[in-house]
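#struct-help
A.M.: can someone run this one for me? Single chain, 263 residues.
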Amino acid sequence: MSLWKRMSLVVRSKASKALDRAEDPRETLDYSYQKQLELLTQVRRGVADVATSRKRVELQRSQLQQQAAKLQQQAEQAIGLGREDLAREALTRRSGLTTQIADLDAQIAQLQAEEEKLVRTQQQLQTKVESFRTRKEKIKATYTAAEAQTKVTEALSGIGDELGDVGAAITRAEDKTAQMQARAGAIDELLASGALDDLSATNNGDDIARELAAMSSQSDVEAELARLKGLQAGAPAPDALPSGQDVEEPVLDAEPRKDAGSA
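D.P.: on it. C-alpha cells below:
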C-alpha cells in the first residue's frame, strides 16, 4: 500500500470517528422523518395537480358536449324547416365536437389513472411515514434512556474517583498531623530538659531573664552567708565560762617539776 493510500485511509477513518462522535441519532432520525414528510407533501401536491388537470379537462368536455347537443337540436330544427343545408352544417360541426370529446375522454381516463396511481403511492408512503415515525420515536426514547443511564453511570464513576481522592487526602492529612504532633512533643521534651533553648522569646527578653536569674541566685548566696555569719558571731566558744566569773590565768612554774621517782 502506497503512502498516499495509507494517509487517505487514516484521514477517512479519523473523519468517520469524528462524525460518529458528533452524530446524534435522534437528530438523524428527525431529519430523515422530515425528508419523508417533504416527499409525502410532494406526492400529495402531485395528486392535487393531476386532479386539477382532470377537472379542467372534464369541464372542457362538458362544454363541448353542451355545444354538440345544441348543434343536434339545430340540425333537427333545420330539417323541420326544410333547410337540409343548415342541418348538414350543424351535423358536421357536431361530428367535429364529438371527435374532440372522444380525445378529452381519453385524456380524462389517462389523468384518472395517473391520479389513482399517485393516490396509491401517497397511501403507501403515508403508511411508511407513520411506521417510520413510530419506530423513530421508539428509537429516540431508547437512545435517550441509554444516554441518561450512561451519564448517571459516568457521574457515579466520577463521584467514586473523587471520594477516593478525598479519602487519600484525609489519610495524608492525618499522617502529617501525627508527624506534627510528634515533632511538637519532641521539642517540648528538649525544652524541658534544657537541651534546647526556648527561642520563642526575643533576645532582649532572654538577656533580662538571665540577668534577673543571676541576681536572684547571688542574693540567695549573700543572704545565706550573712545568716551563717550571724550564727557564728552569737554562739559561745567551746571553753568559755559563764558570764560574771573571772578567768584565772595559768601559773607558770619557774622550774620544771621533777618526777617523784627521780632523786
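A.M.: thanks! The chain is about 85% helix and 0% strand.
D.P.: also worth noting: The radius of gyration is 68 Å.
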